[in-house]
Amino acid sequence: xxxxxxxxxxxxxxxxxxxxxxxxxxxxxxxxxxxxxxxxxxxxxxxxxxxxxxxxxxxxxxxxxxxxxxxxxxxxxxxxxxxxxxxxxxxxxxxxxxxxxxxxxxxxxxxxxxxxxxxxxxxxxxxxxxxxxxxxxxxxxxxxxxxxxxxxxxxxxxxxxxxxxxxxxxxxxxxxxxxxxxxxxxxxxxxxxxxxxxxxxxxxxxxxxxxxxxxxxxxxxxxxxxxxxxxxxxxxxxxxxxxxxxxxxxxxxxxxxxxxxxxxxxxxxxxxxxxxxxxxxxxxxxxxxxxxxxxxxxxxxxxxxxxxxxxxxxxxxxxxxxxxxxxxxxxxxxxxxxxxxxxx
Length: 344
What we know:
Blueprint: E1 2-3, H1 14-22, H2 35-48, E2 54-58, H3 61-72, E3 77-82, H4 86-89, H5 94-97, E4 102-105, H6 114-125, E5 135-142, H7 153-166, E6 169-173, H8 177-181, H9 190-196, E7 199-203, E8 213-217, H10 220-223, H11 226-232, H12 241-250, H13 255-276, E9 289-290, E10 293-295, H14 296-303, E11 306-307, E12 309-313, E13 318-324, H15 331-343
Parallel strand pairs: 1-11, 3-4, 3-5, 5-6, 6-7
Antiparallel strand pairs: 2-8, 7-8, 9-13, 10-13, 12-13
Helix pairs in contact: 1-12, 2-12, 6-7, 13-15
C-alpha cells in the first residue's frame, strides 16, 4: 500500500536523525533550557524578523492548540473557528475539555472573513443577554486551511485588522505552514505572519520532523506564564533538546522550505493527473493536499493499492477524496500512481 492519506506517514528527515545521533551523548539541562533549543529559538526569531518573540517547543498539534488557546482565554471566553477548522472537528473536543467553547462560523474554503469577525462581535455585544453567552476573544485560523488553501497577505492583513477592531487575539495553526510558505502562489513570509498574528506555530510533525511544533508568541500579554501552562498541559518534555535539535536542523540551509516545496511539486503532478482524467477538483489547492471528485467505482480500485481520505460522499455516486503528499513522498510513488490512473 502506498500512502497518500497524510503527511506524517514517514519518520523524519535524515539530517535530523543524523543530528540526533551525533548529539546523543551530549549532556544538557532538561525542559527546553538547553543550548540546542536556544539556538533554534534564535534562528526562528531571525526568520520571523521578530527578535522579541517568545518561542516554545511542544510535541504535537492538538497539544499545542489546547495549550495556546486555554492559556490565552479567561474562563468565560471562547475561540472562533471555521466550521471545518481542526479544533472544531478533529481534536476530540480538546478545546472544550479545557472549559472553552469553540464558536464555529460557516466557511466553504476553510477561511474566515473579516466581515464574519465583525458580525460576530456586534451580534454578541449588542445582545441584551450577552453576559449570559460565551464571549468571543480569539480567532483561530489555519494556513494552509483544511482544504489546502492559503491566506494572501491582503487577506491576513484584513483579518488582523478586524481582530484588532474587535479586541480579539489572532492565532494561526501552522501544522502545514511549510507547505504554505513553499507554495508557488504564496504571498506571505514568516515575518508577515509574525507581524499579523498574536501567536502562531510552525509545524514540524508534518514537515520533516519526527515530532514537534514551535509556538511563536509576539503579543506580550500572551507571553506571561506560558511555560506554566505548557507544564500543566503535559507538554513540557524533559528531554526538550529532542525538539530544539529538530527545529535547529530544519531551519538551517533552507531545509524546511526545500523539503516542503518537494511535497508541493509532487502534489501538483497528481493534480494534473486528476485534471487530465476530466475530474473536477473540489478546490484549487496549490499545496500538498488535493481534493478530486472521483467516481466511486474508480475510487474503489484506487483504494486497493493507494490510501487516501474521504472528505465528502455525494449522491451522484462520486466522492470528494483527499490525496496528501509529504516532504518524503518519492517521485517513483507518484509516477506509479499516475500510470495506474491512466488505466482506470
